[in-house]
Design a protein that fits this description.
Immunoglobulin-like; 2 domains; four-stranded antiparallel sheet; mainly beta; 21 strands; globular; YmcC-like fold
Length: 363
């Protein structure tokens, strides 16, 4: 009887107090993740000649888009160290009890938006406006969800038109939690939470009411992730995906897969510096900032140079610089005291040359 009582107490407590989502994320600012990225061929064999690397850095915690956000800067390159390269993008995480949230921005949606716009011949920005409606916080990782049960992170229906042909489509992000798995990595062995995230595009077969539309999957890109306590994502695997659009009269093609493993590079390396000789827009400093930061660039060309600021949705906010200049290095001070907290994009253009970077304003 005593053993039965103890078991009931354990089960009851595990249901009432499931593991906190934030316990899987590093607690100290300055934490750095280093990943080895291995592309996969159509048979999901690694292509070692195309290996590249990714570095993430937890920089701060800030109130962004109405949530307390863990701000992670990220960059990729073919150098396993990447120490001298600027951070190019931003990932935002947030945690509420047993749920891990991630902020979905247009930088994550552009690839699939480009793909759909290309195939349906959209020239009206209708596809991009549709995907802009997805931008925001989404509950990607419900750590207390039922094992092997699919959950919906996001689902939207729309209709696109090609000439006179209407295409009813459904875009979804679907998740699933699996049984925990032990993973051996470069930085240790962990008992990991395992999730899959599927980006799915379906064609809707529409029937007269009250019969609901029947989705026929066109694209399904599945990413499997392993999340370790205090370390977050230590491994992910996205297999190569065959996309069959014959239903739309387009044919089929393959999207290459990729394998990502937490990586522990050698401790020492030789610093290297390259002479600046090309058009370059540098990462603002400091970043994140409040409310002042410096933006610098180098140009080998004479001519009109325009530096503009955009919000996370791609809307123009300010023109920061617009002038005719000679070759050389330039720097401006930017005061963002009149802007709200958030992630912004700044873009420098000169003739046919354009470069962009992201900055984070925190209050």
């Amino acid at each position: 009887m005593k053993i039965l009582f103890v078991l009931m107490v354990i089960i009851f407590n595990s249901e009432i107090n499931p593991q906190s989502a934030s316990s899987f994320f590093p607690q100290n600012h300055g934490y750095v993740w280093r990943y080895k990225m291995i592309p996969l061929d159509t048979l999901n064999n690694p292509i070692d000649s195309l290996v590249f690397y990714r570095v993430d850095s937890l920089t701060t915690t800030a109130n962004l888009y109405n949530r307390s956000a863990k701000v992670v800067l990220t960059k990729v390159g073919d150098d396993p160290f990447l120490y001298l390269e600027p951070y190019l993008d931003t990932i935002l995480y947030s945690f509420d009890q047993t749920i891990g949230y991630e902020y979905l921005g247009m930088s994550q949606l552009e690839a699939i938006a480009d793909l759909i716009a290309l195939f349906i011949g959209d020239t009206t920005s209708g596809v991009y406006n549709f995907f802009r409606s997805f931008v925001g916080w989404h509950s990607y990782y419900p750590f207390a969800s039922t094992v092997n049960q699919q959950y919906t992170i996001l689902s939207r229906d729309t209709t696109f038109t090609i000439d006179t042909l209407s295409l009813p489509l459904r875009f979804q992000i679907l998740g699933r939690r699996f049984n925990d798995q032990t993973k051996i990595t470069d930085i240790g062995t962990f008992n990991c939470k395992k999730f899959t995230l599927e980006w799915r595009l379906s064609y809707l077969l529409v029937f007269p009411p009250p019969i609901p539309p029947v989705p026929v999957k066109l694209i399904g890109i599945v990413d499997t992730l392993w999340i370790a306590p205090n370390h977050w994502i230590v491994k992910s695997f996205t297999p190569s995906t065959i996309v069959d659009l014959s239903l739309l009269g387009i044919g089929s093609f393959t999207i290459p897969g990729i394998k990502m493993d937490i990586h522990n590079p050698p401790v020492s390396f030789n610093d290297y510096y390259s002479e600046i000789s090309s058009f370059q827009l540098f990462q603002n400093f400091p970043n994140p900032f409040n409310p002042n930061t410096k933006i610098s660039w180098y140009t080998p060309h004479s001519g009109r140079h325009i530096l503009k600021l955009y919000d996370i949705l791609g809307n123009e906010v300010l023109t920061l610089f617009d002038d005719y200049i000679l070759p050389g290095k330039y720097e401006i001070n930017f005061d963002a005291s009149k802007l709200s907290s958030g992630v912004y994009l700044y873009r420098l253009s000169n003739n046919n040359l354009t470069q962009s970077r992201k900055m984070i304003l925190v209050r």
